Amino acid sequence: MSPPYSAYMGRFAPSPSGPLHIGSLVTALASYLDARANRGQWLLRMEDIDPPREQAGAAQQIINSLISHGLIWDGDIFWQSQRSAAYDTYLQQLLDNNLAYYCNCSRRQLAPKQGLHIGACRHPGSPGSSAIRLRTPNETIHFEDRIQGSQNRAQADIGDPVLKRKDGLYAYQLAVVVDDAEQGITDIVRGVDLLDATAWQIHLQNTLGLPPVRYCHIPVIVGSDGHKLSKQSFAPALDDSRATDNLRSALHYLQQSPPPDTLTDSTALLTWATAHWRPQDIPASRHIDAV
Question: N or C: which terminus of the chain has fewer CB atoms within 10 Å of its end residue's CB?
Answer without folding.
Answer: N
